[in-house]
UniProtKB/TrEMBL annotation:
Protein name stated in the entry: Ornithine carbamoyltransferase
Enzyme Commission number(s) from the entry: 2.1.3.3
Leading EC class: transferase
Ranges where the Aspartate/ornithine carbamoyltransferase carbamoyl-P binding domain occurs: 10-146
Principal location listed in the UniProt entry: cytoplasm
Residue ranges occupied by any Aspartate/ornithine carbamoyltransferase Asp/Orn-binding domain in the UniProt entry: 153-304
Gene Ontology biological process terms, A to Z: citrulline biosynthetic process; L-arginine biosynthetic process via ornithine
């Protein structure tokens, strides 16, 4: 039976907090959980959830994952706890890590997440920040592996905003050696520090391409991925971005230029007829709901490594 290995890093703040071997191990565990080939019971472990932003998938998949592992979750609503009143992170982290065995945090600044990690005696998981969404990327690459069996020669094209989801895809692509092309409007490129980090990791530097040309970025691609144009916290940019992102919708025309067996991914929630047409969202090429389901299996795998 496959046993979860202890990860070298205490925390999972970034996609780069796992080695390539650890990343593949988590995907293998996740597959086993999904196929019901693996059952792990961690007695009385508690996951604390601190979500400064809304969530459906991440929150519920963490709750169900803990339940399946024989543990439980405490959902700390910032508006009804002292977090919303501005209790310093260093105090909250020191208190909660005396009650909980692990904390999953969704917040704005990556530096705030790092502050939690600095003061918490227990592991911290990034449940999304403005910079990264590493739990999402685990499920994304699990879904890609389900489809193509391995990552050899897979071309992943992300069309849209160079946001947290794009950043995590770039870092995982570098780790796995997957060709990643990002097509975004000028001025909306992914984080330049993370791009530099990715180039340092890629053995073949040609495998990462950042472009402003969606039509060339999709040529022959195996996976077309998109996300909302305005992320949580950017609501005031919505109107402006909708103008700038004209031409960056995944539609029939863009899909026709990709590989004929290309699949479509979206981390959800989606705005139909903005970043993706309803026709493509609902098409036979879509693996969007498998991808959403895989959040559960991937996080169950991650937790089983972190909590053992
Ligand atoms: N994809 C994702 O993280 O969804 P939620 O915002 O619903 O958690
Ligand atoms: N980029 C999106 C992802 C939501 C899961 C956001 O940060 O709002």
């Amino acid at each position: 039976m496959l046993n979860p290995i202890k990860l070298a890093s205490k925390n999972f703040l970034s996609s780069l907090d796992t080695s390539l071997e650890e990343f593949l191990h988590i995907l293998e565990l996740a597959k086993n959980f999904k196929n019901k080939d693996l059952s792990i019971k961690l007695q009385e472990k508690v996951l604390g959830l601190i979500f400064d932003k809304s969530s459906t998938r991440t929150r519920v998949s963490f709750q169900v994952a803990m339940s399946r592992l024989g543990g439980t979750t405490v959902d700390l609503n910032p508006t009804t706890s002292q977090i919303g009143r501005g209790e310093p992170i260093r105090d909250t982290a020191r208190v909660l890590s005396r009650y909980c065995d692990v904390l999953a945090i969704r917040t704005f600044k990556q530096t705030d997440l790092e502050e939690y990690a600095k003061w918490s005696s227990k592991p911290i998981i990034n449940a999304l920040t403005d910079l990264e969404h590493p739990c999402q990327a685990l499920a994304d690459f699990m879904t890609i592996k389900e489809e193509f069996l391995d990552f050899n020669d897979v071309v992943l094209t992300f069309i849209g905003d160079g946001n947290n989801v794009a950043n995590s895809l770039i870092l995982c692509g570098a780790l796995l050696g997957v060709e990643v092309r990002i097509a975004c409007p000028k001025g909306y490129e992914p984080n330049s520090l993370l791009i530099d980090k990715a180039y340092e990791i890629y053995e073949n530097k040609n495998l990462l391409k950042i472009t402003n040309e969606p039509n060339t970025a999709v040529l022959g691609a195996n996976v077309l991925y998109t996300d909302v144009w305005s992320s949580m916290g950017e609501e005031n940019q919505k109107d402006e971005k909708e103008k700038v992102f004209n031409g960056f919708t995944i539609d029939r025309d863009l899909v026709s230029k990709a590989d004929k067996d290309a699949i479509i991914l979206h981390c959800l929630p989606a705005y139909r007829s903005k970043e993706i047409t309803d026709e493509i969202f609902e098409s036979h090429k879509s693996r969007i709901f498998d991808q959403a389901e895989n959040r559960l299996h991937a996080q169950q795998a991650l937790l089983s490594c972190i909590l053992q």
